[in-house]
Design goal:
The protein is an alpha+beta fold. Helix content is 25%, strand content 32%. It has a seven-stranded antiparallel β-sheet with strand order 1-2-7-6-5-3-4, covered by helices on one side.
């Protein structure tokens, strides 16, 4: 994915990443399903990240349930991402070739950042999600 731009707000960095290719709803679901095991709830007792469809929280008891979500306008996953050591919210829009990403401005890495630093920090993570969109879902162990 290509970082299209970012804005800094109190507490958050908001950005957009362009997808390499336009994708179907099912492909977006595979990306959310792929990243689900790598995110946690925002607080330690939350467990799983939250999944929202068209801004309404849905209950997910297994990551594979994500693959059966009926087509909608958007799907969001939000929670704490241990890989980047920050809370994040990723909004995948149906029929639109970009993903909106908000990252909490916690830790030194996200307190003082610019386009280049943020891109180096987030691009590999976002590229990994895009790759997951095009692979068969990993089996739960």
């Amino acid at each position: 994915m290509l970082l299209a731009g970012l804005t800094e707000e109190p507490g958050w960095i908001r950005s957009s990443f362009n997808l390499t290719y336009r994708v179907s709803w099912e492909t977006l679901l595979k990306g959310v399903r792929g990243v689900f095991p790598y995110m946690r709830g925002v607080s330690p007792n939350d467990g799983n990240p939250e999944v929202l469809v068209d801004d309404s929280i849905i209950q997910i008891s297994s990551p594979d349930e994500i693959l059966a979500i009926p087509e909608a306008g958007s799907i969001t996953i939000r929670g704490f991402v241990p890989v980047i050591k920050a809370p994040a919210m990723l909004v995948f829009h149906n029929q639109v070739p970009y993903v909106n990403v908000a990252v909490g401005r916690v830790g030194e890495e996200y307190q003082n950042t610019d386009y280049e630093k943020f891109n180096k920090s987030m691009c590999q993570f976002m590229d990994s999600i895009e790759i997951m969109m095009h692979l068969p879902p990993k089996e739960d162990s």
